[in-house]
Amino acid sequence: MSAFALAMLGFATVIVIITLLLRNVTVPSLAFVSVSTVTAVILVLTRTFTLDEMAGYIKAGVNGVNSTAILFIFSVLFFGIMTDAGMFDTIINALMKKVGNNVVGVALMTCVIAMIAHLDGSGAATFLITVPAMLPVYKRLHMRRETLLLICVTAMGVMNLMPWGGPTMRAASVVGIEPNDLWFRLMPMQAVGLVLAVLTALFWGIREKNRIAKLGDAACENADQYDDSESETRDESLARPQNFIFNVVLTLAVIVVLVLDILPTYYVFMIACVLALFVNYPGKKIQSKIIKSHAAAGLSMASTIMCAGVFLGVLQQSGIMEQMAVVMANFIPEQLGRFLPIIIGILSVPLALLFDTDSYFYGLLPVLMSVGNQFGVDPVHIAIAMVVCRNCATFISPVAPATYLGIGLAGVEIKDHIKYCFKWQWGVSAVCLIAGLLLNVIKF
C-alpha distances in angstroms, 338 versus 182, 200, 377? Predict the structure, then answer.
């Protein structure tokens, strides 16, 4: 199969999966496995790859997301234990006394927590810190979970531009400069992004406040969809108020270790679960009960992450995504060559849904740099446009494992997450691009 045919097959695979997800035809795990398997069969039947090669790619793809799936299972169990023990209830009650019914304040608090939590550049750690802490407050105030994720991913996208962040380091390595140098050049755009993140929280906080004010109106559509603060039955006998201090210290210790990045994140939560169970619920019978009560939530999303690994194996490990990148670059008309940074900046958010981070920077960026060289375009400007504009959509992308961790913790469907965030993130990306042009960060 030719390189062009491989790229077209790759595009078709991604488009079909996204269509199935957005139209609610099937659950994400089935969509990833079924469509990816059809693609794999086509590749084997056309003798593009042998069966052994394709099996190896799928194995590598699944192995690549194993840690995220394990992390999700044990993080859900840990935060479930903390919820059962009543730790969050105490914290939430204290927060509620501070902010009262100030929905806007809660939205802004979410933004600040996400920014601070994402200083280490880990999407998984940020979701693990921010979502479990804020979700109960959102439920108590009847705020939408999608709004929680929208504010989170906006703040995370801006903070992900730090020089130790994955996208900045990848782009710098391809261009051949130090990550710090690239960061200093894009810093004005990041400053604009930080302002946009705060404005996002403010705008959506006001919007949520207005929506909540209408919840009593019979004409309000789908009010009950988010009015679920009392929908979950709680076994009050599991509350352990006497262990509050221990549970808080344990949770803070987990967060500190996550930020320091000294141990595998999934192992941190494994140990935390052991300590939490032994202290709060000693005894095999009740420990088994606690684990089983949270098993469904953990395994459901973990299975989706593992199935996404099949998709990544078929397209990423096989090199098809690189071919997709080449085809994308070749479709840019020569007369528009000098506007390459603007073009790629505008397209970065949609492309984030098609390409994983490695394929985007290691596959697409070198090709675009070679195209730009023909028109005298500074490769650093291309890299900046790609890094800043794509980061806005990193955590709404269905090819980013951290996305599934976030939506799983928040209890939001991937299709709803994309629908809710896509246009807003594209708008944020466009404003950052315009700021880069006006501030001469990006030139053409």
Answer: 21, 32, 6
- Integer CA distances (angstroms), 48 to 40, 187, 312, in order: 10, 44, 17
Give dist(CA 348, CA 338) in Å, integer: 17
Total domain count for the chain? Answer: 1
Least confident of 29-43, 52-66, 166-180, 188-202: 166-180
pLDDT of residue 399: 79
**CA atoms of 358 and 399, how far apart (whole Å):** 11
Q: What is the DSSP letter of 236?
A: G
Residue 220: pLDDT band (50, 70, 90) is: very low
Asked if the structure places residue 246 within a domain, the reply is yes
Query: Of the candidates 142, 117, 121, 119, which has an alpha carbon nearest to the alpha carbon of residue 131?
Result: 117
Q: Measured between alpha carbons, how far is 399 from 423 in angstroms, rounded to an integer?
A: 18
Residue 202 lies in a domain: yes
In 10 A of CB 230, how many CB atoms? 9
Q: Cβ–Cβ contacts within 10 Å for residue 333, how many?
A: 8
The two tokens of residue 139 are 């439920």
For residue 400, what are its two tokens?
């980013």
Per the document, the length of the chain is 444
| The two three-digit tokens of residue 363, written as one number | 């596959």
The structure's pTM equals 0.73
Residue 52 exposed, middle or buried by CB count within 10 Å (0-12, 13-18, 19+) = exposed
Helices (H), 236-339: 244-260, 265-280, 284-312, 320-330
Q: Which residue segment(s) compose the domain that 272 sits in?
A: 65-157+194-212+238-306
pLDDT value at 336 more than 60: yes
